[in-house]
Specification:
Length: 830
């Protein structure tokens, strides 16, 4: 055999044509895309079926595997479908058969399966040789009257047989059972609906063609999924019905059960559509083991043939609402993206609810019209025969004589036609009549039948001639199907309480936030720390890296908005829960991942914005003793990069912040043990970019370490708090605020505590009440919680007592107050 390629010049022009390869590829791809769109992936708006579904059902219909027959091996059904109508892989056909039999996949299954057809856990169906199938009763309604020329047929793939282009479809199957598929450049995702609701909407459209989508939605409340569950809100449903597109949130059905032992459990009884139950439980278990899903003690599947039941057992101290929100965010909610795309006259179109039903009604009118014409033709043919028989009965003697005298059957026919004008069909029928049909009883029956046929002809002609009658037939048949197959709605609606946010997943609790000099930050539940006796060493609260030291510890609620003031006079806004929660031994996370801090910028003060009132101010003090007040309203809109809180002189730093209301006294404390108290009004309100005024006259290398806002009225009117002073070497004391008399701003102040020697310099001052707890943090990361009442109350200018025992060169870094937390802490400890 020669392998030479012939010269194009030697080949006939009719055999070779020139074409640009890009043009040929473009046209070929378009042909392929249209083949996929129209012949494989998208349903027809008229019967809601793709070709493979339609061919499976028609093959079963042709083989007599109906709902009234015995089940047939699935392999037989697949083989018939593949051999006669669908020349593709048997696995694809069997997968289609399986899905049409799954009551968790289809709202109204079209196949009645016997055997293992898979499960909601994702288990595959048994091999086709082990399962059996037949048509379900409702699927027969899709094929009803198909023999009456109701739809067009086309040749099958090898031209041996004819197959229907579309099924008659006695109900709107596209909406009732939904459909999903991916074509080329487009996809469809139509949710299933309740049969009764869809039929009611169709009837509404028949009776009022001008009905709006809103009118139809009075009947079709929304998708009705086979697995039940809930739809969250109605706005997305409305959008989907009006535009053909929408995103519907589905939520599992569950309830929280309280148990006698004090713990709760969440029992899940219905899952969102197309959720794999086993995979969901597996993911939940993995999250519990990894620690990302907290508060769960046990997780088990108690589902059986009666329904789904997944039990989530919670720990006794678990925050039930938080666990529930975590489950909703990741496992119990799912989105169904509605794309109501279907083939209309062979072209893909996105349809509204009304358009979908209008196209179905157009199809159904065509089906009923063609069926009526078919029945009319049959009735007229029958009437024609009966007219001949009645004429023969009227002249029975003569008819018998003509037949008897004829030489043969053909001669008898000719004689009858000559005598009475019978047609060929009539005379054929008369010649075949038996003598017994000439009796009077037989004659009466023929007359009755003729009257019935004439009435039938009149009715059919009315239907064909009057569209209102045609529509009444469609309406009547739809209502009959509703009466026979409709059931209660499974999917419920719940109010849209907005999507679960990150904040919903965080337990609302008091936390302790630790900040280091190198800006590592973390939070820990305050309940982790039990109150200890004064003079203890505390426990590890942070594992600071070499060269780093703790600089600040403060209390906050996990849901608070915080204003974080830095030593450089900047302020940033942050949600407490955005600070990562870590163990006591963890170092923390770099604050630059949370705040846009510059090199050398440290957080020195934190204010809770939830405590703001309209007439309040932010009072600030710097290390060099400058005080400034700025209206709190100026800190409402803070950029992610922060804003200026105070202008600082070179070398000065912002050290403390208090929220005041114009009626407070400000008490400034210095590292060398001095304290000055003055009316806050002496520092008038200024803009954010101002430096402020001098609050204390410092001597030598002394510097301000803290500020307290005290009631100006004094203890006689209810301010029974003390000034807590703590030194760097762990000593401290409480002194009634009333012992610090008011002075003028920019004085030297009074002696608060003796420094130097064993005490060292002052580290922190706080206003405390007798029922409050203190959290004390050392620079090396030791943390201690003690009751304020355990620290002795003494006068000014004293040494104080041991508050925290420190080792080596360790020093107290920061102190904060836990308001009235002792009872709660003790209860948690128990």
């Amino acid at each position: 055999m020669s392998s030479e390629v012939p010269d194009p010049a030697d080949v006939g022009a009719a055999e070779v044509t020139s074409a640009r390869i890009e043009d040929e590829m473009e046209q070929s791809y378009i042909d392929y895309a249209m083949s996929v769109i129209a012949g494989r992936a998208l349903p027809d708006v008229r019967d809601g079926l793709k070709p493979v579904h339609r061919r499976v059902l028609y093959a079963m219909h042709e083989e007599g595997v109906t709902s009234g027959s015995s089940h047939r091996k699935s392999s037989s059904v697949v083989g018939d479908t593949m051999g006669d109508y669908h020349p593709h892989g048997d696995s694809a056909i069997y997968d289609t058969l399986v899905r049409m039999a799954q009551d968790f996949s289809m709202r109204y299954p079209l196949v009645d399966g016997q055997g293992n057809f898979g499960s909601i856990d994702g288990d595959p169906a048994a091999a086709m040789r082990y399962t059996e199938a037949r048509m379900s009763p409702i699927s027969e309604e899709l094929l009803a009257d198909i023999e009456m020329d109701t739809v067009d047929f086309q040749p099958n793939y090898d031209d041996r047989l004819q197959e229907p282009e579309v099924l008659p479809s006695a109900f709107p199957n596209l909406l009732v059972n939904g459909s999903s598929g991916i074509a080329v450049g487009m996809s469809t995702n139509v949710p299933p609906h309740n049969l009764g609701e869809v039929i009611d909407a169709t009837v509404e459209l028949i009776e009022d063609p001008d009905a709006t989508v809103e009118d139809l939605m009075d009947h079709v409340k929304g998708p009705d999924f086979p697995t039940g569950a809930n739809i969250v809100g109605r706005n997305a449903v409305h959008a989907a019905y009006k535009t053909g597109r929408g995103r519907i949130r589905m939520r599992a059905e569950f309830e929280v059960e309280e148990r006698e032992n004090g713990s709760d459990r969440i029992v899940i009884t219905e899952l969102p559509y197309q959720t794999n139950k086993a995979r969901m439980i597996e993911k939940m278990a993995d999250a519990v083991n990894e620690g990302s899903l907290e508060g769960i003690r046990d997780l088990r599947d108690e589902s059986d043939r009666d329904g789904i039941r997944v039990v989530v057992e919670l720990k006794r101290n678990a925050m039930t609402e938080v666990v529930k929100n975590q489950l909703l965010e990741s496992y119990l909610e799912k989105t169904f993206g509605v794309i109501n795309l279907a083939l209309v006259d062979g072209e893909p179109r996105v349809l509204s609810l009304k358009e979908t039903l209008e196209h179905y009604l157009d199809h159904r009118k065509e089906v009923v019209r063609r069926r009526s014409q078919y029945e009319l033709d049959e009735a007229q043919d029958r009437a024609h025969i009966l007219e001949g028989r009645l004429t023969a009965l009227e002249h029975a003697d003569d008819v018998v004589e003509i037949i008897r005298d004829a030489e043969d059957r053909d001669a008898a026919k000719d004689g009858l036609q000559s005598a009475y004008g019978f047609s060929d069909d009539q005379v054929d029928h008369i010649v075949r009549m038996q003598l017994g049909s000439l009796t009077s009883m037989e004659a009466a029956e023929i007359e009755d039948e003729y009257e019935d046929v004439q009435a039938r002809i009149e009715r059919l002609e009315t239907i064909l001639g009057d569209e209102s009658e045609l529509l009444s037939v469609i309406e009547e048949e739809l209502l009959e199907i509703k009466d026979q197959y409709a059931d209660e709605r499974r999917t419920s609606f719940i109010d849209d309480d907005e999507e679960v946010t990150r904040e919903d997943l965080i337990a609302e609790e008091d936390v302790v936030v630790v900040v280091t000099e190198q800006d590592y930050v973390k939070r820990m539940p305050a309940a982790q720390f039990d109150a200890q006796n004064r003079g203890g060493k505390g426990i590890i609260g942070a594992d600071v890296k070499e060269g780093d030291r703790v600089s600040k510890v403060f209390r906050a609620n996990s849901h608070d908005y915080l204003l974080c003031f830095t030593n450089q006079g900047q302020v940033y806004r942050l949600k407490t829960y955005e600070i990562p929660e870590m163990s006591r031994t963890a170092r923390g996370k770099s604050a630059v991942n949370l705040l846009d801090l510059d090199d050398g910028e440290e957080i020195t003060a934190v204010v809770n914005t939830d405590e703001f009132e309209d007439d309040e101010s932010i009072s600030m003090v710097t290390r060099d003793g400058y005080v400034k007040r700025t209206a709190a309203a100026e800190f409402e809109n803070i950029l992610s990069t922060g804003i200026i809180a105070a202008k600082l002189e070179d070398g000065d730093q912002l050290v403390d912040v208090e929220v005041t209301d114009g009626s407070k006294d400000l008490l400034l404390a210095t590292a060398d043990g001095m304290a000055i108290r003055f009316d806050e009004s002496e520092a008038r309100e200024m803009g954010r970019s101002a430096r402020g005024v001098r609050g204390v006259d410092l001597e030598g290398d002394d510097e301000v370490v803290g500020m307290v806002a005290a009631d100006a009225s004094g203890p006689s009117d209810g301010d029974d708090r003390d000034l807590l002073t703590v030194t760097e070497r762990g000593y401290g004391k409480r002194t009634p605020l009333g012992e610090y008399r008011r002075q003028s701003r920019n004085g030297k102040g009074l002696v608060d505590i003796k420094t130097g020697g064993r005490n060292g310099r002052v580290t922190s001052v706080k206003a405390v009440g007798p029922d409050e707890d203190l959290v004390i943090m050392s620079a090396d990361g030791q943390i201690m919680r003690i009751r304020a009442a355990d620290i002795s109350e003494v006068g000014r200018n004293t040494m104080g007592v041991t508050v925290m025992e420190l080792e080596g060169t360790d020093a107290v870094a920061s102190v904060d107050v836990l308001a009235e937390a002792s009872d709660e802490a003790n209860a948690d400890a128990e």
